[in-house]
Amino acid sequence: MSTPTRPSIVVLNGPNLNLLGEREPEKYGHATLADVEAMCRECAERGGHDLDFRQTNHEGVMIDWIHEVRHTAAGVVINAGGWTHTSVAIRDALANVEGTIVEVHITDIHAREEFRHFSFITDVADHVIVGRGVPGYVEAVEFVLSREGVPRRP
Ligand code: CA2
What is the pLDDT of residues 72-91, one digit of tens each? Predict the structure, then answer.
């Protein structure tokens, strides 16, 4: 008999987030993306879920990843970085995700430059977390866990 697979939470990171912890610590803190992954994994596994954590600097790769997981992920947590403010294509891909969507930003995008105030993702997301630092990612994973079994759309 095959081992049943656990539901998965997918955490997707956009451009430049691979530099987390290396530059601009006054804005983004000292934690690296590997640290963020470990925090999210611990939380997801405590909640009985697998964690799939990815980062890309290529928009088409991000869109392919969203398509890949759209029917299978219990939830998608996304920090789309700069694409948040520019990409209709990422928004359109997310609109086809069946699981819970949480948009995360480490900084408070509404307290920064005006060009960061608008997000193409917000109105296709179930929940938005901004300005909580890297613990915001863990809050996002917790939100997905809290929504397990709750139908997302009528
Ligand atoms: O606050 C966030 O999480 C952002 O999504 C980060 C993006 C920015 O374009 C958004 O407006 C807000 C930038 C990601 C760049 O990440 C770096 C991290 C450390 C050092 C350099 C870049």
Answer: 999 999 999 999 999 999 99
